[in-house]
Amino acid sequence: MIEDSKLGYRKEILDDFEFGNGKVLHNVEVEYTTRGTPKYDEEGNITNAIIYCHRFNGNCLSIGDLHQLVGPESMLSDYNFFYISITSLGFPESCSPSTTELKYDFPKYSIKDCVNFKRKFLAETFGMNKILGILGVGIGGYEAYTWACEYPEEMEFVIIGNSSFKTDGYRYITSKALDYIIDSSDAYLGTIYTEHLSKIMFSINSMIYSQYFSKRAFQKFTREELDIFMDNFVDEGSYTDIYDFRYRNLAILDYDVEDKLPNIKAKTLIVGASEDIYYSPEFDVYPLKDKIENIEIHIFDAQNFVYNYDYSQFVNLFREFLEEFKK
């Protein structure tokens, strides 16, 4: 195990990982972090583990964004859950095209591969084949939906925020356009990471920024404010490797678990945002009422949402939902 006490992450090495397409990688790195203290049953199994699945531009340390919900000073601290946050397959802190230096020769992966990557890690590192629950945000929600659909007996609850059960419509067009931009560059298949590739990523992050706020919030900002927020967002994404990004984007393009949603047995809480541009309550939340049996839905007002995440308004919602799962 590799550990960085200052940053709070740890790394394990899996002997191998087999993708759904049959490709196998060896000596696979997995970065993760934990919060809280595990509890065990009489057979030595951890009983209070919640798996956090991070958003598109995050990693395992993104669980820090949820400090109001999972931090030691949070109102939920007395619930004594054991949170495990794992940097997903394809992200540079874990096994990815950039860190393996395979670049465009990295095996193409799916969202289900991302789930199986975490499942194998949990089994080998913690001896876990079942978990208490999953908390997924954005693309992390894709993993949560997939996990609950494909392996419905492995968790008791699922909490998903600002996400969807498939890539279609506006999202599909956006991801397809981004892939076209990357594919149009001859530099993508080169042996050197050129400045041209960095400029492409700059343009891509500028496009992604257009989906960042609610429609009403965008209208409230002045041009000067929009420029500041956009510069900050693009700067944050300026270190994203184009190969990591493309493989992640391709996994999103193929994502669709709509037909499998009735498989979900876990108690499910879906949290969405009003007027969201990328994840619409109309198309991505309300249709779930007829597809998942044991579901609760909460839509919050996102029109005043700005750059920093504020989860304080969810504390009571989470507390009430999680009450029955206290160990």
Order of helices and strands: EEEEHEHEHEHHHHHEHEH
| Share of residues in strands | 15-25%
**What is the helix fraction of residues, given as a range?**
25-40%
Question: Rough shape?
Answer: globular
Find the CATH topology of the largest domain: Rossmann fold
What's the β-strand tally? Answer: 9
Q: Ends: how far apart?
A: 29 Å
What class, by secondary structure content? alpha/beta
Number of helices: 10
How many structural domains? 2
Oligomeric state, counting identical vs distinct chains: single chain
CATH architecture of the largest domain: 3-Layer(aba) Sandwich
Which whole number gives the mean pLDDT?
A: 90
Query: What's the level 1 CATH class of the largest domain?
Result: Alpha Beta
Biggest beta sheet summary: 9 strands, mixed
Rounded to an integer in angstroms, the radius of gyration calculated over CA atoms is: 19 Å
Strand order of the largest sheet: 1-2-3-5-4-6-7-8-9
Low-confidence stretches: 304-308
Model description:
The protein is α/β, with parallel strands linked by helices and about 325 residues long. It has two domains: about 1-165 and about 255-325, Alpha/Beta hydrolase fold, catalytic domain (Rossmann fold), CATH 3.40.50; about 170-250, no CATH class. It has helices at about 65-70, 110-125, 140-150, 170-185, 195-210, 215-220, 225-235, 240-255, 280-285, 315-320, and strands at about 1-5, 10-20, 25-35, 50-55, 80-85, 135, 155-160, 265-275, 295-300. The protein has a nine-stranded mixed beta sheet. α2 (about 110-125) crosses α3, α4 packs antiparallel against α8 (about 240-255) and α5 crosses α7. The longest helix has 16 residues, at about 110-125.
